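Progress narrative, work stream C.
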Amino acid sequence: MAIIMQEPALMEFLARDFAQVADDFTITRVEEDLLEVRLNVEDRHLRPGGTVSGPSMFALADVAVYLAILSRLGPVALAVTTNCSIDFMRKPAAGRALVAQARLLKLGRVLAVGDVLIRSEGESAPVARAGLTYSIPPAR
């Protein structure tokens, strides 16, 4: 299945439908088998000790898979997360953005399954890995 939405259209969709979090993320790459998105880390994303919080990493993984789905299906605002498992593997580097690479393992009519690796910007070792399942609403 070909890419339907590229970075500008995806960012416009986020700004319009998810304005409360749109500024937190920057899409850096959209390919048929990979979507890369950056969490623009601010103080509100940090936990005591200066590291990025688990909920912020979860949000990054969730948004990455959501955008990967939209890139292939178009603007389906009502697609929702039905399952997520996240493994926190190491502490993110202080003072750096996080970058998520999302891959869709399955994109069906009803369910989408994705895998995400999250790294500190400029680092090769992942800080977290997540697997997510999304429910896709029926076409109208």
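Work stream C, second folded protein:
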Amino acid sequence: MTRSSTSRRWALRACAAGAVLALGAGSAMANNWPDKPITLVVPYTAGGPTDVVARLIAVPMGQSLGQTVLVENTVGAGGTIAPARVAKSKNDGYTILIHHMGMATAPALYKKLPYDPLKDFEYIGQVLDVPMTLLSRKDFPASNFKELQDYVKKNQDKVSLANAGIGAVSQLCGMLFMHQMGVKLTTVPYKGAGPAMNDLMGGQVDLLCDQTTQTVPVIKDGKRAKVFGVTTSERLSSLPEIPTLNEQGLKGFDVKVWHGMYAPKGTPKDVVDKINKALNVALKDDNVKKRIAELSSDLVSPEKATPEGLRKHLEAEVARWDKVIKAAGVTAE
């Protein structure tokens, strides 16, 4: 046997030994995981719709995992800073992300996105679907959707439309509303849904399209804002008296905000499976189900609350919103 062949054989043995050690280390980590708190990163401000969902499921998830799940709000750049942070985090399962449909719209909205939603993450599972509603300040001149249409078309240069910031679903919903109405309103971006809602109720802005997790308490109060319709194709069982925008003339208007949970690419499958199991425990929690129903939202089916369910949905949504956003002419730097 030649010296070169002997060297190659020793090199192959070394590689094999290294692979076994790496596999063993990964298995050991998965077996001991978690042995410290997990951070659940939210791309938006505290008190906003996604934050409400995160804090609601964090408690039962933590109980299931035997460790605290800490909610961290990492805001900015239209919700793209948080995914970028998680994508670059250590892939040990201790830093995970909850994000809404912004994961699917960001590739079309931003020219230079610091991460790839389809390549830089491991999928944990879908969480819930959230309808949206169109609201106005309580003293807005219109009292129903027909009056709103007439007023907006005649006074578009005077009407302001709030959103939770560039890239937020409220911005996308508002842009689609303007596109289908054939008007251009003065858009007012905020640093989160909470501040936008506060200014709407305070009368500083005219209109806002936002998620039911944020708007249902205001709608049921009936004194702080007016509601003109829901964004889904069918009426909500919790708000049956409120017609859809579709049935009132905006044909095909259907926006439902879905949420998913992600981990950095390369997170061990055993760890992802443990997080997924904890997520599914949380989705069956009685308090979670009660609170989500109160917010007129829908927890996803067990089939959707899986890595494969989220992967397929994200791929389909990226393709869908790419066409919608480009047709609407919505872009961000």
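The radius of gyration is 23 Å. No further action is required on this item.
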